[in-house]
Design goal:
It contains two helices and three strands; from the N terminus they run E-H-E-E-H. The protein is an alpha/beta fold and 64 residues long. It has a three-stranded parallel sheet, covered by helices on one side.
Length: 64
């Protein structure tokens, strides 16, 4: 049986993923340290904060 992990299940993207698939483990970016050494077969990181998406949409340059 495959082990999979979802990080960020309370946001819009993570909530929709969690509703469609029963992940073996779910955590948040604040408590991901508890998963250290778990070695999941699949890790889905849906914990990207909205400002990251805004930066990509506006094509705002990033700092070097």
């Amino acid at each position: 049986m495959a082990k999979d992990l979802l990080v960020g299940s309370t946001g819009f993207v993570g909530g929709n993923l969690a509703a469609k698939h029963a992940f073996a483990a779910v955590c948040h970016s604040t408590d991901i340290a508890a998963q250290f050494g778990a070695k999941p077969d699949l890790c889905v990181y849906a914990g990207v904060p909205p400002p990251c998406f805004w930066r990509m949409q506006t094509r705002m340059p990033t700092l070097p």
